[in-house]
Specification:
single chain; 198 residues; alpha+beta; 434 Repressor (Amino-terminal Domain); Jelly Rolls; six-stranded antiparallel sheet; three-stranded antiparallel sheet; 5 helices; 21% helix; DNA-binding; RmlC_Cupin_sf; Lambda_DNA-bd_dom_sf
Amino acid sequence: MPRGGEKRDGGEGGAPRVGAAVRRRRRSLELTLADVAERSGLSSPFLSQIENDRARPSMRSLQRIADALDTTAVQLLAASDETRTVDVVRAGDDGGLRDGGPREGARVRPVVRGRHQVHALEFTGEHDADREFLHRNDELLYVADGAVEVEAEGRIHRLGRGDALLMSGGVRHRWRTVGPGARVLVVAVADHVELLEP
């Protein structure tokens, strides 16, 4: 018989799918399903069904899971992947921002809108290495046109058209374009995403 008011029928009909958020949080704390079951008073099979979106917990059960994971139900809901979107960003969309520096024509354009697991920005024109970056998660820099110089952990990398550079989370870096006509795409895993060890 299910423990603690568990619902095998999928729980509340309109409840969001929180399985991925629960699994990410549990793994980030290096807890097993059995650990969470013991802390929450819910069964391991039920927790497994939640993580795999085969069952949806009631709000009360979700709060018990959240307590076991040292978080809140609201945070688990916010981290859920319930909302899936298809969003086309056209080349001519006026979402770009001027770089703010002295370089005329330098622009930064978001190519991913909203709060998602990745951020992506397109840089065009000349950009200076006037700021050092340090991100929690991985970042990829791809040179679509022109040339770029990246300083990462004290080492200089020169990149040309078609080159890409991956920097793992925690790598201090700065970059600048070399010469005119540069177009660079920077894609980063968002800071609110908790990466899991393989």
